[in-house]
Amino acid sequence: MKITHLTFDKYPLFLAPMDEVTDASFRYVCKHFGADMMFTEFVAADGLIRDAASTVAKMQIYDYERPIGIQIYGHLMEPMIEAARIAEEVAPDVIDINFGCPMRKIAARGAGSGIMREPDKMVEMTSRIVDAVKVPVTVKTRLGWDEDSKIIVELAERLQDTGIAALTIHGRTRAQVYKGEADWTLIGEVKRNPRMKIPIIGNGDVKSPQRAKEMFDRYGVDAIMIGRATYGHPWIFREIKHYIATGELLPDMQVSERVALAKIHLQKSIEVKGERTGVLEMRRHLSNYFKALPDFKETRSKLVTENNPEKVTEILDYIGERWKESA
């Protein structure tokens, strides 16, 4: 499978852009476990234009992460075009347009999946961004605004005609947010459409190796993008690749392995963001690495309130010893 200049082996797996999750330290561990392509946290067009430090920081990428895309979002035409030009200066492999985020604070303004109520504007914005930059442009979107407006099959053709290099489709409407089960039938219909020539990437509810293999086989997508299932479980990429290659499931990762991974992740977070911020922003990840452990409430509380990295490491060592027999 190819996205312009990027070539992937069969069954590629992509890390979805997730705000406050897919920062550089999380991408580091996902790359280690085999993510074939990754995306930054999504970046607000308005923030880029204002040169807001927190927004610009999200675009920090490293050569070892490649191929990597920067995803931008916004509801106004000119700021989105300017944001794409600014993002291009960082030299990502692609610029991805976020037409998929369902969060109220974004969609209510007509950004993210909110723009699906205005498909003509969506197509025009995409076309103008494609024309404005030299780097390949991709799009991530949903089936439609709600159950009565699942427009993705026709919309996919229109987006392709703008010159985008690939299209990612999440199998829910905006109205569903993340409720119910993702419906891949229309994703498959887009992929089977003989007019579609660009890669189609499926997204939504891929939580296991078996599910990933089923989606590839049943719907014929060119790649799968995984989002929420990586949270606290970045090794899912390795699990899926092993299952597709062998038909066998890997054993569950032992607590000792998770402890070692958490230490690496913590150190990378500190390296990228400094000690204070690095520790604070790791809290959301650390507790998720161990969320299935029994009788973990007290230890979890200590883990997510400790500010000293050495003491966090001591707590991690305690977890490794206390639950060493657990998977």
Topology:
Layout: E1 2-3, E2 6-7, E3 13-15, H1 24-32, E4 38-39, E5 43-44, H2 45-49, H3 53-57, E6 68-73, H4 77-88, E7 94-99, H5 104-107, H6 119-132, E8 137-142, H7 152-161, E9 166-170, H8 185-192, E10 200-203, H9 209-219, E11 223-226, H10 236-246, H11 255-273, H12 275-289, H13 297-303, H14 309-322
Parallel strand pairs: 3-11, 4-6, 5-6, 6-7, 7-8, 8-9, 9-10, 10-11
Antiparallel strand pairs: 1-2
Helix pairs in contact: 1-11, 4-6, 6-7, 7-8, 9-10, 11-12, 11-14
Give a description of the structure.
- Helix 6 runs parallel beside helix 7.
- The model has no long low-confidence stretch (mean pLDDT 94).
- Helices cover 44% and strands 13% of the residues.
- The protein has 14 helices and eleven strands.
- It is of the alpha/beta class and 327 residues long.
- Strands 3, 4, 5, 6, 7, 8, 9, 10 and 11 form a nine-stranded parallel sheet that branches. A two-stranded antiparallel sheet has the order 1-2.
- The chain has helices at residues 24-32, 45-49, 53-57, 77-88, 104-107, 119-132, 152-161, 185-192, 209-219, 236-246, 255-273, 275-289, 297-303, 309-322; strands at residues 2-3, 6-7, 13-15, 38-39, 43-44, 68-73, 94-99, 137-142, 166-170, 200-203, 223-226.
